[in-house]
Amino acid sequence: xxxxxxxxxxxxxxxxxxxxxxxxxxxxxxxxxxxxxxxxxxxxxxxxxxxxxxxxxxxxxxxxxxxxxxxxxxxxxxxxxxxxxxxxxxxxxxxxxxxxxxxxxxxxxxxxxxxxxxxxxxxxxxxxxxxxxxxxxxxxxxxxxxxxxxxxxxxxxxxxxxxxxxxxxxxxxxxxxxxxxxxxxxxxxxxxxxxxxxxxxxxxxxxxxxxxxxxxxxxxxxxxxxxxxxxxxxxxxxxxxxxxxxxxxxxxxxxxxxxxxxxxxxxxxxxxxxxxxxxxxxxxxxxxxxxxxxxxxxxxxxxxxxxxxxxxxxxxxxxxxxxxxxxxxxxxxxxxxxxxxxxxxxxxxxxxxxxxxxxxxxxxxxxxxxxxxxxxxxxxxxxxxxxxxxxxxxxxxxxxxxxxxxxxxxxxxxxxxxxxxxxxxxxxxxxxxxxxxxxxxxxxxxxxxxxxxxxxxxxxxxxxxxxxxxxxxxxxxxxxxxxxxxxxxxxxxxxxxxxxxxxxxxxxxxxxxxxxxxxxxxxxxxxxxxxxxxxxxxxxxxxxxxxxxxxxxxxxxxxxxxxxxxxxxxxxxxxxxxxxxxxxxxxxxx
Length: 590
Description:
Layout: E1 3-8, H1 14-17, E2 25-28, H2 36-41, E3 47-51, H3 55-64, E4 69-71, H4 77-85, E5 93-96, H5 98-111, H6 116-119, E6 120-125, H7 129-132, H8 142-147, E7 152-157, H9 167-170, E8 174-180, E9 186-193, H10 196-206, E10 212-215, H11 219-229, E11 235-238, H12 241-249, E12 255-256, E13 265-268, E14 285-290, H13 305-310, E15 319-324, H14 335-353, H15 360-371, H16 387-402, H17 406-413, E16 418-425, H18 431-439, H19 444-460, H20 465-477, H21 479-487, H22 490-495, H23 500-516, H24 519-528, E17 534-536, H25 537-550, H26 561-564, E18 568-575, E19 578-586
Parallel strand pairs: 1-8, 2-7, 2-8, 3-5, 3-6, 4-5, 6-7, 9-15, 9-16, 10-13, 10-14, 11-12, 11-13, 14-15
Antiparallel strand pairs: 17-19, 18-19
Helix pairs in contact: 4-5, 14-16, 18-19, 19-20, 20-21, 21-23
C-alpha cells in the first residue's frame, strides 16, 4: 500500500489538518487523543457506523455526544430500527462493538431495507485490535467481511498494525500517516526485573500521595497484589462485567466495568487499554505491569498497547513506567517458521475440506475431523483463509520474542516512540520463587520447605539491603515460618520434619525458656540455690512453681526438674529418704 504523510503542529487536532477521513484509508494518526473519532462523529458528509473495541469507549463517546446511537448489551434490534426510521437532525451516527455490529446493526439495516453498504461510512477505530484480540475474542472479526462490502470505509488508530489481507490492496487502500512536527515521544521508565512485585511495592511506597493507574491484564494477579500490599480500601479495579462478578464473589467490592471516580491505586485490564478517554484534574502516575512468569497473557506490545495505555489520560501523565520480567523459556517461532507451519496445516485442512462425502455418515465424519483440527480457527465462515488470524499468530510470536530476555525487550523499545530510561534490577528472590510458593501453598510440608529454602538464600545475602526488604515481605506473608527460621534455624526445622505443629511447639518452648531465664528469674533462682546444694526435689519444684506464678509467666507445662535444669547442671540423689537434687555449675552468668 502507498503511504502519504501529513504534518501536524503542536496544539493542533486532526480536524485542523484534515477535513474528512478519506475513503479506503488506513489512517495512522500517530497521536492518541488527536480527535479522529470525534471528527467522524461530527462529519457532515454522511451517515456513519463507528466500531469501537470495547463498551467503556462507547459509553464515554455517548456522554460526550448525546446524539449518538450506542449499541452494546441491552440495545435491541428494535431500538435500532426505531432509530433508523425516526426523524433525525442530521445524519445517523451509530457507535457499536464488533459483536453489536454483526448481531444487531446489520440485521436492523436489513429489516428496515436500509442500503447500508452504499449510504453509510464504516470506520473501524483502534483497528490493531482486530488483529491483536481476534485470537481470544473471535467475534471481533465478525465485521471484517462486511467491511469490504462498504463503498466508503476506513480504519484508524494511533498504533495500527497493517493487515496482510489482500483485499486491502485489491480495493486500493492507502496509508495516511500523521507526522508531528514537534517532539511527541512520551518519557517512560522501563524497569526489567526478576521480581516485579518488589519493584512495584517500592514504587507504590514512593508514590503514597499520588494517583496511581496500573494497567495489568490479569484480574487474579491484580487482586493478589492488592491483598499482598494490604491496600484493599485504597484500590479499585476496572475490568469486564464477568470479572466484576468474580471479584465480588471473592469479597473485593471496589470493582467496576465502567469508569468512575478513581482511588489512590487503580488497576485497569485490557478493555481500558485503548480508545477510552480519561479526564483527571491531577496528572496520574501510570504503571504498565507485565508478569510473564505468573500471568503470561499480561505481556503487551511496546509499539501499540503501552502507547495506548499511557494515551488514555487526555490531560497527560506525571510519569510513566513499564515494569516487566522476562523468561528465556518462552517458545516463539520466527515469521518464516510460523508461515511454513500454517501453510502446511492449511493444506491438510483444505484437503480434508475438499473430500467428497457421498452420504450422511461420511459428511458427519468429515465435519468431526475438521472441527478437531487446530487450524479451524484460521478459517473464515466462508471456508477461506482468515488473514487476520494469521496476522494475530505472528503478532503473538513477535511479542513473546520481546519478553524472552532483558536485551530483546530493550531492543523492542528502541523502535517505539518513547524517551526511554532503562533499569535492570535483580533480586535474590524472584517472581519464579513467588510462583513456587503459590503452587505448593496447599501442601504444608512442601510450603515450609520452599519458604525455608528462600529464607536461606536471603540469609546468605545479608549484606544486601534488598534481602532484608524481602525477608520483611516473607515475614508478612509467612510470619510463623520466618519467626521459626530466625529462632530455631534451618537445621532444627529440618529435624522437626517441617511439621507445623512440632515447629510451633518448639517455638513455644523456646519462648517459655526465654521468659523463664530472664534476668529477674535468674536473680531469684541464684539467690535461693547455689552450686553444691542438695535440696529435696519437691521443695525445688514448689519454689519454681511459685516463682513462675509471681512473675506472671505464661507456662502451661508441668513444673519439674526440667525447669531448674535451665539454670543449673543437676544430678538426682536421695535426701532423708526422699528424692533430691544435687546442684552443679550454673548455666548463666548472673
